[in-house]
Fold:
Amino acid sequence: MKTPHNALRLEAVNLTHKASLIEQQWSPRVVAEMNDYQFKVVRIEGEFIWHSHPETDEAFIVLEGELLIDLPHGTVRVRPGELYVVPRGIEHRTGARTEAKLMMIEPRGVLNTGHEGGERTAPNDQWI
Ligand code: NI
Structure:
């Protein structure tokens, strides 16, 4: 279904501002779509759960704070202005010692908990 969010606009999307509007941490919100991909912002703090996405890579861009991505062989630190792409099928766990604001880019329909599911699964297609 085509959403009205893709209508032609005369203003840019301010990612940090959008992230600051989100009430709860670990609740990704869609700010834009491009073809079948979604741009999502999220505020995180503490540690997520280990999971993977067998069907897709997952891109993280840090807006504020420091993102830690635990991978099978080590931890990647991603700072503001930096990007990291977790390859499809690779187990990962995101975290931040103090609050971090991120943008994620992934295909529409990807769940934040991958195929693990569980109580930390956030609803999809929540725009802000
Ligand atoms: Ni993931």
Notes: The chain has a mean pLDDT of 93. Helices lie at 15-20.
